[in-house]
Amino acid sequence: MRWDDFRRSSNVEDDRDGGGGFGTARAGGIGLGAVIILSLIGWALGIDPSVLIGGAQILSGGNSTRYEQPSQPTREGAPSDTAGDFVAAVLGDSEDRWSEIFQASGMQYRPPKLRLFSGAEPTPCAFAQSAMGPFYCPRDQRIYLDTSFFRDLQTKFHGCQSNACEFAEAYVITHEVGHHIQNLLGILPKVQEAQATSDQVDSNRLQVRVELQADCFAGIWAHHAREKHKFLDPGDVDAALQTASAIGDDRLQERTRGYVVPDAFTHGTSEQRKRWFMIGFNDGRVAACNTFQAAQL
């Protein structure tokens, strides 16, 4: 993946030195202890705990537990280290491509902030820990990312190998941007409303459609970025698909339980995640990513 020509976003907040502190918990929904326990269980099992709690936080708009924002000063703008520079580059190009897409539809794109942290970080949606993986918080329209997750793609999830990882990492970032797109388009609030009157099985099924659409939106970014920059190297798309496969619900459940429970899926199977990323990548239109109307996922 060649990303030198990508514009660096100024919407990066770098709190990797601050650590974020623990903030102040507010009552409601899943408590701080439950969030931390689920995170630690996921970490011990080698599974991204966002499968356990992240999707519920996204779809509920973060109603589980609220935390004060960290008080430590945060550097804003593109970081100078390699990992931070890469994140700023991918975020910047996603801003440019989605601005073009929104403008073509007569709308204005409002980009999210992306907050880098190390270890732990209080957020308005949940207490972020590196074990949770990246996630989007609709309350403050921020993406939270510990760049150590990229190392986990190679070690824990075996999602990519060495120099083929960059596009897989870009897929992870733009998947979270995809949740921001859903928020801007009013999709997340509608799902939240539907989940309020659904049982757990139906709620999970709605969540799968949300996650697969975010995969498709990541593919849309890649489609338009490829047209603009011709930035892909041989093997890049395969690496992204390998990552999508590695973090599919069926693969994760098989690794941790030894069997698969489809009704407990929250992100979609490996094949579904790959399929919807490729739909966005090949088509490039938002209309092609309507997972909520698709008869077959």
Q: How would you describe this structure to a colleague?
A:
- The chain is of the alpha/beta class and 297 residues long.
- It has one domain (12-289).
- 48% of the residues lie in helices and 9% in strands.
- The strands form 3 sheets. The chain has a 5-stranded mixed sheet. The chain has a two-stranded antiparallel ribbon with strand order 2-3. It has a two-stranded antiparallel sheet with strand order 6-7.
- Strand 8 (135-137) and strand 9 (142-145) form a beta hairpin.
- Helix 3 crosses helix 5 (165-184), helix 5 crosses helix 8 (236-246) and helix 6 packs antiparallel against helix 7.
- The chain is globular, with a radius of gyration of 18 Å.
- Residues 19-68 and 248-265 have low confidence and may be disordered.
Task: Describe the structure concisely for a colleague.
The chain contains ten helices and nine strands. The chain has 297 residues and is of the alpha/beta class. Helix 7 (200-229) runs parallel beside helix 10.
Rounded average pLDDT: 75
Given as residue ranges, the uncertain stretches (5+ residues, pLDDT < 50) are 19-68, 248-265
Helix content range of the residues, please? Answer: 40-55%
Q: Gap between N and C termini, in Å? A: 29 Å
Question: What is the domain total for the residues?
Answer: 1
Strand content: 5-15%
SSE class? alpha/beta
Q: Element order, helices and strands?
A: EEHHEEHEEEEEHHHHHHH
Q: What is the β-strand count?
A: 9
Tell me about the largest β-sheet. Answer: 5 strands, mixed
What's the alpha carbon Rg, rounded to whole Å?
18 Å
What is the tally of helical segments? 10
- For the biggest β-sheet, the strand order reads 4-1-5-9-8
Using the alpha-carbon principal axes, give the shape. Answer: globular
